[in-house]
Amino acid sequence: YFDSIGDHGRTTVLIPDSAHGTNPATAAMAGFKVVEVKSDKRGNVDIDELRRLAGPDTAALMITNPNTLGLWDEHIDEIVEIIHGVGGLVYNDGANFNAILGIARPGDLGVDIMHFNLHKTFSTPHGGGGPGSGPVGVKAHLARFLPGPIVTRNEGGDPEYTWAWPEASIGKIHSFHGNFGMHVRAYTYIRMHGAEGLRQVSEDAVLAANYLLARLRERYELPYDRTCMHEFVLSATRQKQRGVRAMDIAKRLLDFGFHPPTVYFPLIVPEALMIEPTETESLETLDAFVAAMLQIADEAEREPEHVQHAPHRTFYKRLDEVRANRELNLRWEPQQSAPLPAVAD
To answer: What would the pLDDT profile of 142-152 be if each residue is shown by its tens digit?
Structure first.
């Protein structure tokens, strides 16, 4: 895009410290210099810092909004204006799109590019249940540079759907069809819910998160005291004074049958616990989670050793995480597998 308009000095991508961790990695892999933008005291992008950093070398801002603190950036209009004002593009990471379905359209806010995490918003599996998939949407002025081929429709024609190459396509990228089955599943999910249903998805997710936040805020530190979106971040710094870390709390939650929240991310919150209930959990489940978290807070004060040595009820206890990172085991080998139990006829 920049080459096409004769602008060859765009070497930098600005990334807020509250953005998704994949953003700086993506920019660096593409050959850009990554510059971090600090957050302000309310968890927004620091506007003064952004003004200082944005300039003629800025290719883009990669922002996650809502951000990884679970907060909507209160200055998003001004942020977009600053970046567009220096000729850059705004890329929105759609990781937290689940909070704004039917409520806000990033394109209307001035976002130029956005990827959609189907597994985070539109029901497709993730990880071992994958494959994952993340379609990318762009504004009209970038459409001609999209990877190809793409599907175009000739309504009433024969064939009606055909392959086509965008005018200035960057070419093929690996698996350029994407994971088609995931797209069909996500599309089905969207059509089943409809506009009203999708909005309710977000409203329920935001309501559930704020309910948990209200129930837990007195027992855990709340770094940013604001109404959250679909997730929120607590800090276990209070519990750490008794020797109980965020990781200990996560391990103890296993004893109650709960999948632990993300810990130690975002990096700007010490002993972070990122809690995201989603729209699907019942009030009974939310209350059970609250009860577990409150009990763990009590245990951290009265018997911290019990939390430090959790989990107690799982088949596998704590793994050696340092060794796991240093000696990666990425391939199944027969000698590492346990023998299968005999099956009666």
So the answer is: 999 998 888 89
